[in-house]
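R.M. (postdoc): so does anyone remember the format we settled on? I'll just put the structure tokens first.
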């Protein structure tokens, strides 16, 4: 039987996830005129979890118009996804991990993926930025990465708060503040409740030639009394503490929990993530991290008084200074309560912005970006 069925609509793709105690056998094919995807499930029942899927399709889903479930023939349940246009589906399975059993995942992508650089340019209304390098003046582009999402809730607080929701709320507030600055613009790696692989987050930052990459988190630790804000940069070699090593492993495992199709390989990106010529970028990341950490210290207790380092996959862009901000410990009941407070979220966002502005004051964006304007 199907233990759970979930639908995660997003601008980049819509994900259908079916979970079971046993591995799910399936067959996927597409039909045209009108466009449909058909998913046949073998040896499962048309139970309540599948039946409930039909009501989970929302009007704002970019790709799926309607979903129908029925018994196709003895031993086979058929799911039909009525589409809003032609799509590029990917289907794969995941083995049990964390609280999840076996999962069958169907990702519905557009035929042509949105170009993040073009989308950023089209959404930007600013004309004459004051940052100047040589004969060029341009805006500083900040990519904000709300950690986790979709199938991967991240850490959970004692009162049920999911890290993925807190990070998105703070990231949206930070984006609003940055976009209000005359010399900056911001882009979110995700702006909804869906999972984005770690490598895809890095790729987005590189595609828009980001000046800075800031990943927002609110993690947990094995001890509930752990508290305070932290900032991390990439380490080429080893973590600066056992806690940093533990945290990096926890964050890097997000792809296993969020669900990544390991059959899809991008050689160029793989080479990029393995590139170790990042010494200069890491140096700038540490400077950015120090500025942000100093400002966070005005809002919250600091868990560490210095920027820590570990091998976070999401920080591995070789040409974009990148930091991971642990805003607070969601596993600490007091900090969980504060993280749910809108005013406190705004204070955190303003502190991160202040740190970014201090860094850019000393290290303005360089003119080689395609976002530069004459």
């Amino acid at each position: 039987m199907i233990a759970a069925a979930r639908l995660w609509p997003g601008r980049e793709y819509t994900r259908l996830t079916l979970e079971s105690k046993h591995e799910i056998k399936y067959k996927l094919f597409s039909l045209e005129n009108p466009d449909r995807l058909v998913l046949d499930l073998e040896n499962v029942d048309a139970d309540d979890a599948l039946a409930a899927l039909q009501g989970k399709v929302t009007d704002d889903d970019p790709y799926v118009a309607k979903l129908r479930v029925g018994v196709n023939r003895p031993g086979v349940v058929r799911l039909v996804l009525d589409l809003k246009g032609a799509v590029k589906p990917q289907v794969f399975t995941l083995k049990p991990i964390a609280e999840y059993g076996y999962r069958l995942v169907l990702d519905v992508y557009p035929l042509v993926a949105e170009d993040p650089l073009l989308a950023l340019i089209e959404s930007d209304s600013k004309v004459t930025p004051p940052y100047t390098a040589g004969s060029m003046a341009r805006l500083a582009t900040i990519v904000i990465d709300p950690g986790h999402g979709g199938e991967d809730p991240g850490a959970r607080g004692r009162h049920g708060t999911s890290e993925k929701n807190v990070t998105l709320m703070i990231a949206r507030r930070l984006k609003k503040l940055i976009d209000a600055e005359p010399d900056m613009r911001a882009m979110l790696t995700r702006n909804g409740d869906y999972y984005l692989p770690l490598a895809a987050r890095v790729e987005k930052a590189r595609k828009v030639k980001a000046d800075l990459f800031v990943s927002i988190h609110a993690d947990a630790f094995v001890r509930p009394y752990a508290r305070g804000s932290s900032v991390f940069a990439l380490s080429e070699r080893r973590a600066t503490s056992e806690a940093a090593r533990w945290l990096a492993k926890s964050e890097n495992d997000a792809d296993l929990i969020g669900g990544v199709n390991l059959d899809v390989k991008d050689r160029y990106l793989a080479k990029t993530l393995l590139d170790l010529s990042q010494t200069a970028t890491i140096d700038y990341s540490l400077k950015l991290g120090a500025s942000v950490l100093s400002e966070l210290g005005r809002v919250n207790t600091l868990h560490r008084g210095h920027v820590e380092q570990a091998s976070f996959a999401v920080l591995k862009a070789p040409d974009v200074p990148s930091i991971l901000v642990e805003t607070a410990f969601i596993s600490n009941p007091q900090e969980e309560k504060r993280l749910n407070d809108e005013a406190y979220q705004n204070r955190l966002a303003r502190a991160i912005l202040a740190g970014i502005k201090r860094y850019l004051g000393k290290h303005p964006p360089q003119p080689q970006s395609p976002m530069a304007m004459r």
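R.M.: ...and that's the designed sequence above, right after the tokens. Also worth knowing: The first strand starts at residue 2 and ends at 8. The chain has two domains: 2-110, 116-362.
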